[in-house]
Amino acid sequence: MLEDPALAPVATEFREPEASAEHEIVEVAAAGLNPVDLATASGAFSGPVDLPSVVGREGVGSVPGGRRVYFDTTVAPFGSLAERALVPRDLLIDVPDGIEDGLALAFGIAGMAAWLGLTWKGGMLRGESVLVLGASSVVGQIAVQSATLLGAGRVIAAARDEGMLRKALDRGADVAVPIAPDGEFAGELLEASGDGFDLVLDPLGGEPAAAALAAMAEHGRMVQIGSAAGPTVELTARPFRLKSLSILGLINFSAPIEERAEAFRRMCGHALAGDLEVEVEEIPLDRVADAWERQAGGPHHKLAVRP
C-alpha cells in the first residue's frame, strides 16, 4: 500500500475489493513492477493519487472458475501489489498453459512496448534495419529478440551497460554500440547504421534519440516510448524533411485490447519455443519496499512480486 508518494510502499492490511458487472477480482499470483508504477505513485504519470492506495498496474492470477489471466490495468485503489486486485473484465488476457508467472509478466507492459512498437506502431517489414536504444532494459532485451524473430535484416543494440550489450549480441543483435557520455556515440552510431536505420525503438529520448534521428534511412520511423535519457529530443528540421522521417508516439494503452492480447500470446509462444528469453527475479510482497528501490535503480531483469 502507498501511504506517501515520496516513500516506497509498505506491506500492510487494506480493505477488500468488491466485484461488479464491469470489474472482476483477480487472485494475484505475481505482480510486475515497471517504471510506470513509480511515475504513477509520484503523480508524474496521471496526476496525484488518492491515498492510501494499492500500487501496481500488472499481474498474473486467476478469476473465479480457475481461468488464468494477465492484466495491465487495475481499478483504483486496488492495484496489483496485493493478494487480490480489481480489474476491468474486458481487459483480462488469457495466459497460455506452460508459461511461468514471472515470464508472463515480462511480456506484459514491458514486452508489449517492445512488440507493439515494432509491429502495430512501427510497421516493421522483413529485411529492415532496426535500432533498439536502451537495449539493456527489459523492454530493450525483448525488442532485440523480437526484431530478429520478426525478420529484421539487421538489428543494432545500443546501451550503456557493456555486459548487457554482449548479451544482446548473444540473443540476435548484429551490432552493439555503447552509449557513452563523451560525445563519441553519435559517430559510432552513424557508422553502425550502414545505409541508415529503417526503424528505431526509442525508450530514451535526449541525446541518444537525437543521434539516432541523424542516422536514419529515408522514410525511416522512430517509435518513441520513453524518456529515460531526457525529456526532449533536438530535431534538425531540414534533414528531417528531406528524408521524410516520422516520429511516432506509443503508449501501450492506446492499442486496442485485441492487439495487446495478440502481442502477449505471440511472445509467450516464442518463449515456450525457447526463442525469447528474459531473466526474472521473484521478491515476496513483504519486501515490496526493496523491490521498489531496485526498480528505481533500473534493473536489467523483470521484478515479480509474490503475495
Task: Find the CATH topology of the largest domain.
Answer: Rossmann fold
The H/E string reads EHEEEEHHEHEHEHEHEHEHEHE
CA-based gyration radius: 19 Å
User: What profile does the largest beta sheet have?
Assistant: 7 strands, mixed
CA(first)-CA(last) distance: 12 Å
Alpha plus pi helix count: 10
Structure write-up:
With 307 residues, this protein is an alpha/beta fold. The chain folds into two domains: 23-107 and 278-306, Quinone Oxidoreductase, Chain A, domain 1; 110-253, NAD(P)-binding Rossmann-like Domain (Rossmann fold), CATH 3.40.50.720. The protein is built from ten helices and 13 strands. It has helices at 35-42, 101-106, 109-121, 138-149, 162-170, 185-192, 206-214, 237-242, 257-272, 288-296; strands spanning 23-32, 59-62, 68-71, 84-88, 93-94, 129-133, 154-159, 175-178, 197-202, 216-224, 246-249, 280-284, 302-306. The strands form two sheets. Strands 1, 2, 3, 4, 5, 12 and 13 form a seven-stranded mixed sheet that branches. Strands 8-7-6-9-10-11 form a six-stranded parallel sheet, sandwiched between helices. The longest helix has 16 residues, at 257-272.
Concise description?
With 307 residues, the chain is of the alpha/beta class. It has 10 helices and 13 strands.
